[in-house]
From TrEMBL:
This is Polyphosphate kinase. GO terms for cellular component: polyphosphate kinase complex. Its EC number is 2.7.4.1. The keyword Oxidoreductase does not apply. It comes from uncultured Thermomicrobiales bacterium. Belongs to the polyphosphate kinase 1 (PPK1) family. Keywords: ATP-binding, Kinase, Nucleotide-binding, Phosphoprotein, Transferase. Residues 368-532, 540-711 form the Polyphosphate kinase C-terminal domain. It catalyses: [phosphate](n) + ATP = [phosphate](n+1) + ADP.
Length: 734
């Protein structure tokens, strides 16, 4: 039971100890949007880093573009709604919505300029040097043009819809996320404009067949040559087919992003069919107001102003870049068979042998996962350990006649999930299968709706969560009939049940048969699928309700320990740190002298190293080959009182107040020691992927000390997982 009391500005522990939470001065809180933009600047630095393989650099550049599309649709759209509502109250950083928008816009335009320059002046020329070229129509010879014209007529022309704009045909609706050409025409009737939408159903990069003999220039002999043309450039070269009888004066690409925050009104109980409600909401995503109009430098200013007006946008929605639009489509180049330009392939190892290599006397013998879990917990560290262990756990449960119930939460499932067939196979008269599918997982809503309907058609009990809350926790419960009665087996994790992202996202999961943990997970599912109230749990820390108080209590206990021993220590690893109460508690702990290490991949609103406030706090961000996604919370220096928690929750208001989250303890001492004494300190030693946050809010690379070799934590974890498996020859490619 929770023993802490949080009253106004104090965290009170039993025995009379209390921790005062100081007021949060605006100067001590970094704006979350500006911090998010800085995160993308760190990603862009990886695209600029010449020690990275070339196609991996291109991938990082594409990620930045994709990140910004989603951010504009949700976060900047929300800020614009505040402006439209006339809100003037300052945020925790002291900025009014108007001041925040101005600062954000300057920062975004600056980063977009850097991004475009990197692609234009570095990545595209480097690709050309390695035989990968994006050409223009003028670069092509007669035969090449003929082949592309044939391809245009057969595969592209039938899809296109030219839309004239005149007094009888008003400016068409421009859908969210669409890439378009604004075409300037001239005929006997005078000058006019038309719009052509570039089909998103086709590859953005059109392959140009080899030139053959007589090519003027190209890669070194023996290289694989791959040439492409932007789809919009190919369309532009054939506009005469779309507008016969008109002179094509020019064409200009433009890209539109709209407000796409379509979360339904959860407080409205009049509509109890969330599935239907989400379908209706999704249909409106394409019609939100414009939040970004992106054009390149070719668009004349007068046409630009006219386009802004036609879209009912404003100058503050306009962003001009000197480079390709929609550059997230550069990700298509990752499909090229060019291993010389990519990271070496990674083969994750099975985590089952982490427990004890003696479990397998014969390497061909398949371990019984349930017997292993009755003996010990198993820690999975993805992508270093394969996601196949999770699939095996669920598949074993589905095939086991002694299993009587399987329950699972699904947030971002992926398109080709190996888990869903196992859940369907498990459903029979003797096995209850219940799945909570979160329909409001942003930008995965349609995929989740499809999977939910598929599961229901096969007789699986499907629930959609709690009103007003997103179910973000990652939990699986298997109930098995055994000689001594029913036993619960659980999987809890920091990341989604998504086999695809598990290859590139760093996450941690726990398989366990601990009785108290299993009982807590049962209670959690009862709350998610029935009318049971979220309550206190023996082991889990659960949001909403008491998760923030649990963190505040644990921080206060560490301050008390520091007063007694001088050895207080906190080490948190997360994606985002925004929650004001937690930040105030960390400042309070630092003022007491507690040493605090924070590993924050993305947004960090806390300002470290400020004299008198955060002198003992160090903040670092790790951005590398794998996306750091796990949340790990270590309370205490090495010793019997130290505890380690993992879970799905970042320290943000949305996670602590508006989502169902589960944070769970690591109680196996061997696994706790491995994670807290080996893995987490390795993150603190990294000098390859790490940036450090300075008191002024800027980030700088963490470099090795003079004479030291660079240390790459992700490479170390890859090698360590293979070593700990005990049988690296059993490595499996999931």
């Amino acid at each position: 039971a929770l023993t802490v009391r949080v009253e106004q500005d104090r965290v009170k522990l039993p025995g009379g100890f209390s921790l005062h939470l100081p007021p949060l001065d605006p100067d001590l809180y970094i704006n979350r949007e500006l911090s998010w933009i800085d995160f993308n600047r760190r990603v862009l630095e990886e695209a600029a880093e010449r020690s990275n393989p070339l196609l991996e650099r291109v991938k990082f550049a594409a990620i930045v573009s994709d990140n910004f599309d989603g951010w504009f649709m949700i976060r900047l759209a929300g800020l614009k709604r505040k402006l439209a509502a006339g809100l003037t109250d300052p945020g925790p950083d002291g900025r009014t919505p108007t001041a925040q928008f101005a600062a954000v816009r300057r920062s975004v335009q600056s980063l977009l300029d850097e991004h475009a320059a990197l692609i234009r002046d570095d990545l595209l020329p480097s690709l050309r040097e390695h035989g990968i070229t994006i050409v223009s129509w003028s670069d092509l010879g007669h035969r090449e043009r003929g082949r592309l014209t044939t391809a245009f007529e057969d595969e592209i022309f039938p899809i296109l819809t030219p839309q004239a704009i005149d007094r009888g045909r008003r400016f068409p609706h421009i859908s969210n996320g669409s890439l378009n050409l604004m075409v300037e025409l001239r005929s006997s009737a005078g000058a006019r404009f038309a719009r052509v939408k570039i089909p998103a159903t086709l590859p953005r990069l059109v392959r140009v067949e080899h030139r053959g003999k007589g090519k003027k220039s190209g890669p070194e002999p023996g290289m694989n040559e791959a040439r492409f043309m932007w789809l919009e450039d190919l369309v532009a070269a054939h506009l005469d087919r779309l507008f016969p009888g008109n002179e094509i004066v020019a064409s200009y690409p433009f890209h539109v992003v709209r407000d796409a925050d379509i979360d339904p009104e959860d407080e409205d109980d009049s509509n109890l069919d969330l599935l239907h409600q989400m379908r209706e909401s999704l249909s409106q995503r394409t019609f939100g107001p414009v939040v970004r109009l992106m054009v390149d430098t070719s668009l004349p200013e007068d046409v630009r102003d006219w386009l802004v007006d036609q879209l009912h946008a404003s100058d503050r929605d306009l962003y001009v870049v000197d480079g390709p639009l929609g550059s997230e489509d550069l990700m298509e180049l990752m499909s090229l068979d060019r291993p010389d330009l990519k990271d070496p392939p990674h083969l994750p190892v099975s985590a089952i042998t982490l427990a004890s290599p003696d479990d397998l006397d014969d390497i061909d013998e398949r371990p019984d996962i349930f017997s292993i879990l009755r003996e010990r917990d198993v820690l999975l560290h993805h992508p270093y350990n394969g996601f196949g262990t999770v699939v095996d756990f669920l598949s074993a449960a589905a095939a086991d006649p002694d299993v009587v119930a399987i329950k699972q939460t699904l947030y971002r499932i992926g398109r080709d999930s190996p888990l869903l067939p196992a859940l369907i196979d498990a459903r029979d008269d003797d096995t209850q299968v219940a799945v909570l599918v979160e329909l409001r997982a942003r930008f995965d809503e349609e995929n989740n709706i499809t999977w939910a309907e598929t599961l229901e058609r096969h007789g699986v009990h499907v629930a959609y969560g709690l009103a007003g809350l997103k179910t973000h926790c990652k939990a699986t419960l298997v109930v098995r009939r055994e000689p001594d009665g029913l036993r619960r087996y659980v999987h809890l994790g920091t990341g989604n049940y998504n086999a695809s992202t598990a290859r590139s996202y760093e996450d941690i999961g726990l398989l366990s048969a601990r009785e108290n943990l299993g009982r807590d997970v049962s209670e959690l599912f009862n709350a998610l699928t029935g009318f049971a109230q979220l309550q206190h749990y023996a082991k889990l820390w659960v949001a909403p309700g008491h998760l923030r108080d649990r963190f505040l209590e644990a921080i206060a206990r560490e301050v008390r320990t520091h007063r007694e021993t001088g050895q207080g220590y906190l080490l948190f690893k997360m994606n985002q740190l925004v929650d004001q109460a937690i930040i105030r508690a960390l400042y309070a702990a630092s003022r007491e002298g507690v040493k605090i290490d924070l590993i924050v991949r993305g947004i960090c609103a806390l300002r470290p190293g400020v004299p008198g406030w955060s002198e003992t706090i160090r903040v670092r961000s790790v951005v590398g080959r794998y996306l750091e996604h796990s949340r790990v919370y270590v309370f205490g220096a090495p010793g019997p009182e130290r505890c380690v928690y993992l879970g799905s929750a970042d320290l943000m208001e949305r996670n602590l107040d508006r989502r169902v989250e589960a944070v769970f303890p690591l109680e196996d001492l061997a696994l706790l020691g491995y994670l807290a004494d080996e893995v987490m300190p390795a993150y603190l030693r990294d000098t390859v992927n790490t940036r450090l946050l300075r008191p002024d809010g800027t980030w700088v690379r963490c470099l090795p000390a003079e004479g030291d070799e660079p240390f790459d934590v992700q490479a170390w974890l890859t090698a360590t997982a293979a070593e700990r498996s005990g049988r690296s020859h059993l490595a499996i490619a999931d």
